[in-house]
Every structure is written in C-alpha cells, then in structure tokens.
Amino acid sequence: MNASKRGSSRYRPRARPVGGFALVIVLWVLAGLTVVAVSIAATVQSNSQSVRLLRDRLRAERAFLSTGSRLKVIGATSIALPYSYLSARGQVFLDGRVSRVNADETVVLQDGRGLMSLERPEGAAWQRFLVSCGATADEVERLQDALADYEDGDSLRRLHGAERDDYRDTALPAPRNAPVLTRDELWRVLGWPGLRRRWDAAGCGENVVAGTAQGFNANTAPLTVLLAHGWDEMQARALIDARRAGLPLLTGGLLDIGGGPAPMLRDSSLPGDRIRVRHRLASLEWALQYDLQFTPSDPGGPWRMHDVQVVRSAPQQPEPPGASDFPPLDYVASQQDRVRLNAVPTSPIGR
Fold first, then answer.
1. CA dist 256 to 211, 235, 237, 241, 260, Å?
2. Which residue has the higher pLDDT, 298 or 182?
3. Which end of the chain is flanked by fewer CB atoms within 10 Å, N or C?
C-alpha cells in the first residue's frame, strides 16, 4: 500500500502557477489601452487644429471679402490721380505701398501700368528686365520672340521665335495665339520653363501683368521696373522717395530728379483700370492675391477678377516706410477732395 502510494505520487501532475499568465494579460490590456488613449488624444488634437485652421480661414475670408468689397466701390467710383484712386469713399494708393486696414490686416495695391506688360514683350526694357530675372544674353531674344509668337494671331515665325510646328516634339501644348491670361501661362511658352527657377528666385512674377496695360506709369512702378525702363538706380530711388512724399512725376511739372529717360517722361501717365491686390493677415502664413479690373462700361458688371492665387506670405516684418491707412468705413472726403471729384475725370475710372 505504501509502495503504491509512493508510486502514484511519482506520476501526479504538479499544479502550474497562473500568476505569470495573468501578468502578461494585464500588460497586454494596458498596452492596448495606451494605444487607444494615444489614438484618441491624437484625434482630439487633430480635430482641434482643424477647427482652429477653419476658424482662421473663415476669419480671413470675411476680412478679405469686406476689404475687397470696399476697394471695388472705391475703384469703380473714383478718379485717377498720378499714383492713386480717389473717390468719395476714400483714397487708395497704387504704388505698392502697404495700406493698413487694421492692426492685423494689410492690403498692397499695385497699378498694372507700373508693371511690365506680358502683352508687349518687345523692346530694350524687356531685354533689361529679363537679364535682371536671370536670363543670359543668348536667351533674351529667344524668350522675347517665343512669347511674341505665342501671343500673336498669325503663324509667321520670328527669327528666334516658335510657332505651332516647334511645339510638336515637346510636352508643351500648342500656342493659343492670344495674349496670356495669367502669369502662370508663361510656362507653356517654348523656352520659358528653363527660366522658371531663376525667375522665381528674383521675384519677377510680381513685376509683370497679364492683359492689356496701355501706357507706362512711372509714378507707380517698382524699382526693378524703373531700372528696366532705363532709369539709373539713384534716379529711380529718388522718384520713389518723392512719390512717398506726395510729389508725383508729371510731364512738364516742377519735380526734377535728373530727367530720367526722355521716352518714359512722355509715357508717364495715370493709373489704368487694372490693379494687383494682395490681402494679408499677420496671423496667417498665406495671402490672397488677384488682379482687379474695373469695367464700368462693359457687360458683366463694373469689375472683374483675374489671376486669383493663394500665395505664401512672408513672416511678419517691421512696417516699411511710406505705409498708409486704408480708408475707414466712416470716411468723409475733405472739401479739397470734393472739389477734385467734381472735376471732369481724366481717366476711364469714374467716367
């Protein structure tokens, strides 16, 4: 009996401890809960950021719509002065200076006549401008002729140009034989894509305008464009300083800064009906930019928007000299301004 008991105890299975399995299960549960918690936290943070970005976007759109609407009314009811529009709703400057709308919002307005017109890419001014944008001497004539051939309505090829047959073996679409509609259409012109990196690095896209921009207005032109039109740097900077001081350049006027190029003095004019608008909020990393054209006598309304872009905005910087204030909602024209507004308009704006 004792032997059998001893034998049976030899083959009796021993009980295994269950504490190890329980610990593993607990650790797995804790790891799963941690993953769930991190996922929920990430989702909450993402949703919070999305809500914030949406709120900022709506705030920006509301501000831009409000300021843009006021600008359209001013432009459509204004007379043109050498570097501004003046109406009973206020005066806006069109020479690229910063206009403060409020502590957070600014708008920059640039007269199209003060820029290089993409509709007329010929002449020495365009040659100097292309060189300032990084083009080599060998590229300049090819770029000018290719753009002119792209825009004209015939199939005659200029000496260094390109017509429909030259586009067949490229990835570019055939030329439209019409003036470019936007600045980005430049990169559909044969030879121009090779300039794009240098063009963008020099910021040349801000100094050109699509569409009709008859005449050239030295009173609103930026420094780069004045240099392209033959001014030396000292004269150009003097002209910019003078306009900020309220002394426009007028043919036969009293302002004398060394004369400047004679052809440009003859072409000095008032702002045209097309301006570039750039809205910016200091709290955003992007800005809204478009070309605004006033068409009071054309079908479809008194204004049109072209070349609308959302562009990256530079970090907030100290306010440049010469900044102005955008007309407030309660603006009241002075007696002197009311007299000028009663005079016969000298431009298509306000007629």
1. 32, 10, 13, 13, 9
2. 182
3. N
Asked whether residue 20 carries a pLDDT value surpassing 70, the answer given is: no
Tell me the C-alpha distance between 211 and 275, whole Å.
11
Q: Hey, is 351 helix, strand or coil? A: coil
Q: Which amino acid is at 120?
A: R
Taking the C-alpha atoms of residue 191 and residue 150, their distance in angstroms, rounded to an integer, is 11
Task: For strands 286-294 and 274-281, give the pairing.
Answer: antiparallel
pLDDT tens per residue, range 179-213: 999 999 999 999 999 999 999 999 999 999 998 66
Between CA 43 and CA 37 the distance in angstroms is: 10
Q: Supply φ then ψ for residue 117, to 5 degrees.
A: -80, 125
The 8 Å CB, 24+ separation contacts for 313-316 are 313/280, 313/284, 313/285, 313/286, 313/287, 316/282
Q: Which residues contact 290 (CB under 8 A, 6 or more apart)?
A: 276, 277, 305, 306, 307, 308, 309
Q: From the CB of residue 85, how many other CB atoms can be counted at a distance below 10 Å?
A: 28
Residue 28: Cβ-neighbour burial (10 angstroms; 0-12, 13-18, 19+): exposed
pLDDT grade for 250, boundaries at 50, 70 and 90: low
Q: What is the DSSP letter of 191?
A: T
pLDDT, residue 262, reads 44
Question: How far does the chain reach from its first CA to its final CA, in angstroms?
Answer: 128
Ordered alpha helix ranges (H), 87-176: 123-132, 137-151, 164-167
Average pLDDT value for the chain = 84
Q: What is the 3-state secondary structure (H, E, C) of 291-319?
A: EEEECCCCCCCCEEEEEEEEEECCCCCCC
Task: Decide: helix, strand or coil at residue 79.
Answer: strand
**H helices then E strands: how many in the chain?**
10, 11
Residue 303 contacts residue 293 (beta carbons within 8 Å): yes
Average pLDDT (262-284) is 77
